[in-house]
Amino acid sequence: MYKYNDFDEAFVRERVEQFRGQVARRIDGSLTEDEFRPLRLMNGLYLQLHAYMLRVAIPYGTLNPSQMRQLAYIAERWDKGYGHFTTRQNIQYNWPKLEDVPDILSALADVEMHAIQTSGNTIRNVTADHFAGAAADEIEDPRPVAELLRQWSTDHPEFQFLPRKFKIAVTGSPNDRAVTRAHDIGLRMVRNDAGEPGFEVIVGGGLGRTPMVGKVIRGFLPKADLLPYVEAVVSVWNLLGRRDNKYKARIKITVHEHGLEEIQRLVEDRFAELRPAFGGVDQDLLTQIEAQFAQPHYVAKSTAAFDAARAANPAFRSWSDTNLAQHRTDGYAIVTVSIKKHGATPGDATADQMRVMADLAETYGHGELRISHEQNVILPHVHKSDLPAVYQALRAADLATANVGLISDIIACPGMDYCALATARSIPVAQEIATRFDELKLEHEVGPLKIKISGCINACGHHHVGHIGILGLDRAGVENYQITLGGDGTEDMVVGDKTGPGFAYDEITGAVERIVLAYLEVRTSAEETFLQAYRRVGIGPFKAALYEQGEEADAA
Amino acid sequence: MSRRFTPKVITANALLEGDVVWQTADDRWTRDIREAELIEDEAHADIRLLDASAQRNVVVGVYLADAKAGAEGPEPVHFREAFRTRGPSNYAHGKQVEV
Ligand code: SF4
């Protein structure tokens, strides 16, 4: 893992002390809210519905055990004993007091963390594949590049007042688990004809009010050209981007308005200017960073204990069927710890649970933890012989739900339970759907199905790319939920189709149930997933299940 | 004729805790909407909003929210304002346990 150098350390400490002074001046009245607001946002501090909210960056979703323990400590000392992992691989605290925030930031700096650029019109935390460095299908670990981008973008003088926020995601695998096509810039590692690794550069993706699938602006970018090329993209947009209208300011609209070809031409011109200025210092730095992301020292030992536990314990077998992914090294597995217990808040972990995960990472996981954009926690390198022990410890901490990738593994944004921008709640909708399918004991039979819920059009819950997407709206003073079907957040990203009129708060779980039952009707076999069936039969049978039944009831 | 004025309360978040507060008739900030001043006149609402906004070192984000008279005092009209009187629905946190 990347270790702060003296510069990083001094920079973060200085920012904490600056903010401490700013908070003091706000409290004694020498700063007005208008003056203070941009300063607190630069440090990740929002004012939400019931309280302040502090958003802490988890760069490319990677944590070590002492960082996770510190997050637990902060939750207990200054919040209500838990934290919320977000769809951008960050953690949010929902109840900090203004006066305490400088101390929280100082506690974060103690473990090389901060909340800088988690808000505002800057380049935000760079996200990455949560299986990075472990995935069997990976070309290269994308995190060194993500760290390089983090260093380059942090406090970059040209990019502190962008037209709007700017999000970059990077994956080292052809199978995209980082939703790169829904980012301002998506970087997907590919090989050229000579077999060298480089990046497919995707630009102008995004969800929100105007969902757009990102477009390939460069099919193959050599790794060494990455920083100047990304800088060229951001700088072209920085000049062209619409500062007059915040709904048109994101790069997706710039690309849409000017056309991909024009943007491509401008970016290549700018790149030609910038490229010579990058004299290789960036590559030296990258080499140093890469050394810090060396693979752990894997061990070779028998996996008999794993096979025996699978044979003896059906609950363990079920968990290992859903929550494990293939590791690149023989004998190892990638563990996804579900933070989606049926009926609980998606992405919320208590301080105790954080400590258990930190301990497991230390004892069995080569000291690594990841946060996924799907709001789960990953132990990327666990030897299979240790899985029974890991499972037992997770069970004792209420963290062993066997549902990864299934209906109850729901992404939900905070919605109107916390977020000041929300138009409806999303958390209780997720809770109710998960509880319902747990009662029906259907989710394992249904198989892979991604439900994603947002509490407003900003789409932090990625509803557009949910197989079933749910968007909470305010329709004439009541919560109303619009459903989309067939969305897909992978390398073949598709924005889901709206089914029709929305559903009331107390109707939405029933509506989802009708969709799922309709799928079980139409699928050719258990092998045909929800998404495959939807692509084959289209929206018709699902619309019928959603709306016709209601009409019959009305007619009766 | 202008539309009839919907009664309002003045609300904001407290600067230090971020907690939801309402303005009372005697110029305090209360954490309980039932103690808030229910404003039934538009001109008075404008003046009270100015008063409230001037207290910028106590509260943040002052605005007028629709409300109605209830048995124990003002009650929220919109569901967002109702949530602000209670706290989140996923935990017993905030006003539902503190007020
Ligand atoms: S989607 Fe809307 S409600 Fe949900 S977190 Fe984002 S801004 Fe808030």
Radius of gyration of chain B: 13 Å
Number of domains of chain B: 1
Instruction: Give the spatial strand order of the biggest sheet of chain B.
Output: 3-2-1-4-5
| Beta strand count of chain A | 21
> What is the terminal separation of chain A in angstroms?
64 Å
Largest sheet of chain A: 6 strands, mixed
The beta-strand count of chain B equals 5
Taking all residues together, what is the mean pLDDT of chain B?
95
Order of helices and strands of chain B: EEEHEEHH
| Low-confidence runs of chain B | none
Q: Given the helix and strand composition of chain B, which structural class is it?
A: alpha+beta
Please tell me the CATH architecture of the largest domain in chain A by its name.
2-Layer Sandwich
Q: Which stretches of chain A are poorly predicted, pLDDT < 50 over at least 5 residues?
A: 552-556
Instruction: Please report the number of helical segments of chain A.
Output: 18
Concise overview:
Chain A has four domains: 6-110, Alpha-Beta Complex (Sulfite Reductase Hemoprotein, domain 2), CATH 3.90.480.20; 134-291, Sulfite Reductase Hemoprotein, domain 1 (2-Layer Sandwich), CATH 3.30.413; 304-396, Alpha-Beta Complex (Sulfite Reductase Hemoprotein, domain 2), CATH 3.90.480.20; 416-555, Sulfite Reductase Hemoprotein, domain 1 (2-Layer Sandwich), CATH 3.30.413. Chain A has helices spanning 6-27, 33-42, 65-78, 101-109, 143-153, 226-240, 251-258, 260-274, 281-292, 304-312, 314-323, 351-364, 387-396, 427-440, 443-446, 508-522, 530-537, 540-555; strands at 45-47, 52-56, 62-63, 82-85, 91-93, 127-128, 168-171, 185-191, 197-203, 215-222, 324-326, 332-337, 348-350, 369-371, 377-383, 411-412, 451-454, 468-475, 478-485, 497-498, 503-504.
